[in-house]
Design brief:
342 residues; alpha/beta; 10-stranded mixed beta sheet; two-stranded parallel sheet
Length: 342
């Protein structure tokens, strides 16, 4: 089988050109074509010799895929659907002048089974390769306009740490796209081994999906709490010296009606985050068919926000986007899977 070329780091490209007997500078040319010029094929890398292009084509695959579907919301949000290995993954493009953010997936499905997430109902189908992660970025027409990237789509990024870190290296290295790490945020439920590596090997921002400050209640909706308790996650973040002006830590908190949205929860959230420089993003939950949860009323969200702000926590209520195109994570791909089976 041919080895993948697309999705290779600069270090891997150096090994490839060495093995193929090509000059060392060829690695830089290939990387430039892939990640700066968004080449769609090896043949399109015109400053490589015909001989070298033939060598690469003979031994390496170069798989690039366009979206199979795109839904556009009235607010400008776009939900792109990609096919990979017989499964479907989603990427959400969110324009919000002057920013243009892309939310990418790291897995097809997810093994973590958070009770409020449609992706979790699919189960884990596959980890995405670095090439499949990057293809979501380079496969959309707006790729050159992107200002920010969030690993907040389908899957748990730190259950796929190797390939996620590889994609981050390509996006931020001088030989790759050369983005500042400050333009990228990784969201996790808190997988401790992967989190330790991420804090050590990357300078990108971190967002923690918290959703309930009480361990027993959090475990009801997020089974991961039983293996990787919130207390241990926050301890790791507290003792990490990687947070500074260059790296930001934030907390994601979905408010569910009658479950995690009263002042008791707000005060406990303040307590457990004491001493950690962070921003809390409150998120409205919109009902999803097949899930029992209801979102908190706007008035209660504002009361929750005010309580956190009174205690000194910077808190925002995130604006909902793409409600008319099923932009919530996992909805579009689940529908596509159902259609495929029928």
């Amino acid at each position: 089988m041919k080895k993948p070329l697309w999705g290779s780091t600069y270090g891997e490209l150096l090994e490839i050109v060495k093995e193929e007997g090509m000059p060392k500078f060829t690695a830089g040319q290939i990387s430039d074509w892939m990640y700066r010029k968004n080449a769609r094929s090896i043949e399109g890398m015109s400053n490589l010799s015909k001989k070298n292009r033939a060598l690469l084509t003979e031994s390496y695959s170069y798989i690039r895929k366009d979206p199979v579907n795109c839904s556009t919301s009235s607010d400008g949000t776009k939900k792109y659907l990609f096919e990979t290995g017989g499964n479907f993954i989603e990427a959400a493009y969110i324009p919000d002048e002057p920013r243009a953010t892309l939310c990418v997936s790291s897995q097809a499905g997810c093994r973590r089974q958070c009770r409020f997430c449609m992706t979790g109902k699919q189960g884990l189908q596959s980890n995405l390769t670095s090439g499949e992660i990057l293809n979501q970025i380079y496969g959309i027409p707006e790729w050159e306009n992107l200002t920010n990237l969030v690993f907040m789509g389908m899957g748990e990024p730190l259950d796929n740490t190797d390939e996620v870190l590889k994609s981050l290296e390509i996006l931020t290295s001088e030989e790759g796209l050369a983005w500042s790490p400050k333009r990228i945020t990784l969201s996790t439920v808190g997988i401790l081994p992967g989190l330790e590596r991420f804090l050590r090997e990357s300078q990108c921002h971190l967002a923690l999906s918290l959703h309930n400050p009480f361990s027993e209640e959090r475990a009801e909706i997020m089974p991961v709490e039983k293996k990787y308790p919130l207390k241990e996650i926050l301890h790791l973040i507290r003792r990490s010296d990687s947070f500074s002006r260059q790296r930001r830590f934030s907390v994601e908190y979905i408010l569910f009606d009658g479950f995690n949205d009263d002042l008791r929860h707000a005060r406990e959230l303040v307590r457990i985050l004491n001493g950690i420089k962070t921003r809390v993003n409150l998120i409205a939950f919109h009902p999803v068919e097949g899930l029992p949860w209801k979102g908190s009323p706007r008035s209660r969200m504002e009361e929750f926000q005010l309580e956190l702000q009174r205690k000194g926590l910077t808190t925002t209520i995130r604006r909902s986007r793409g409600l008319d195109i099923q932009a919530a994570c996992g909805l579009l791909s689940t529908l596509e899977q159902v259609k495929k089976k029928t």
